[in-house]
Write a structure and sequence with these properties.
The complex is a heterodimer of chains A (287) and B (282). With 287 residues, chain A is mostly helical. Helix content of chain A is 74%, strand content 3%. Chain B is built from 12 helices and no strands. The N and C termini of chain B lie far apart (44 Å). Classes of the chains: A mainly alpha (287), B mainly alpha (282).
Amino acid sequence: MLYLELFIQGIVQGSIYGLIALGLTLVYGLLRILHVAHAALFTLGGYIGVIVTNTTGSFSLAIVVAMVAVGLVGMAVYKLAYEPLLHRPPYIALIASIALFIASEEIFRIVFGPFGLSYIDPPLQGQIELFAGFRLKYGEILVMGIAIVMLSALAWLSAKTRTGIAWRATVTDPEMAAAFGINIQNVRYLNFFIASALAAVAGVLVALLNNLVEPTMGSVPSYKALAIIVLGGLGSIRGTLVASLALGVIEAFGTIYVGHLLDRDALAFAFLILILMVRPQGLLGAK
Amino acid sequence: MAYEITLLTTMAISILFALSLNFISGFCGQISLGHAAFLGTGAYASAMLTKSSIPFLLTLPVAAIIAGFFGFLIGLASLRVRHDFLAITTMGVGFLFVGIVRKQDFLGGELGLAGIPSPDMSRESFMVFCIILAVIFAIFSLYIRRSWMGFVFESIADNEDVTRILGIDASRFKLAAFVIGTAVAGIAGALYAHHFRYIGPDSFGFVQSVSVLAMVIVGGVGSVWGVAFAAAVLSILPLLVQFIDDYKLLFYSGLLFAMMRFAPDGVAGIVQRLYGYVRRKS
């Protein structure tokens, strides 16, 4: 019974990692930038979610508003921060991104206060008993459900639509794609919009599970999501999903069984280093 | 006067620490996002020893050897993974260090080690000692950069594959860079522990690793003078802007971002451009 509970916990956590890390993979796949500030957009999503829910009382409206608003902010981040740095060595963009992330944590703290915000009337608090003694919170079901819906929508978008084909072509070979008349700039904007919107959903969901948003809620996901996309083999979408779920489950079990030796975050990186030494290209990365 | 002595000692330790990363990331082009772990290794090793009443000066080589040994292991990892993969692996090492130290009772766990004995010298001579070590390593760095080893480092930083095709054993040089850089970081850690006389897991976390990398990049990757200058300024900047207290970190990160956005080649790059401008004028 304990195993099953730990496993489900791991999958829920893994779904959240997946939503965050997927955006990071999209950015990396297209621009080769390690986008640490992605986690700031995740936090922003959480704040918008809580504020909109508290003022309008509608949770679904909050999700939509958070996605659109954060998506637009993501596009602005690309335009203002990354575009001018594309021709520089990659660590420049990485440090810029870390600086941006620290700055935004400070801005959240100064604007919204250091103690964070909560839902006044938290939605979806009940739980359902699946079978004897085994319960799932509605919130947890929602997390898994939304993750599945979002990821399927993304898979459909990239496989079946013209936009998706343009996007994949740009990832594979930007110059060739441009020669075929694809507007690379638009692809990049769209990429940042989708990536940031996914982070925003994750932010709203984490805010729901913890019933709290605070300025520092992005700091753990930011670095862990980097570990995940590297683990998955940078830029590989399938690898990212596998790595997210695997990490969620490993953390759930690991904190119980080796928690006295390593804390939760160190565990993730121990796993990462171990895998990278055996498979330097990541779990599903191409050599 | 005591305040100035503390400031100068802090500066000297930061310069030594930043130059040690410059050796790895600047000269040899291997980006490390976990360099604070080696500062921490040296600090913990040295503090544990002086706490069992072994003379401070004797602990310096021990700190260097232990940190250098771990640096050797990371160097081995850098032979497996490169570029962004290496950046994330070293970041992982930093988190691993903090995560392990946090859980070890004999290292003080969460609370850290307090009551570290003072080094067996006056505050003034400790300051001079730190400055001398920083200067020696700066001279050593300048010397290495002009040596055969320095050229190989530059070539590895530029293009490792070509270096290998030229018949140079790049792996050996990369390992050497990691061992020297991390051993010196270990010495800086020993100085750090006995300067502040308190260390904890959070003194060596990701923020410290990023700030030291920021010193190297703001100074101008690979430039000894630039990095020393940036380390000196950035290490005491938080103290100088104490008056904006609540906005300190915002100011620091904003500055870092502006630097990357508008002058990514750092202080050294700015100076070089100014110099070129003046030369063209005359």
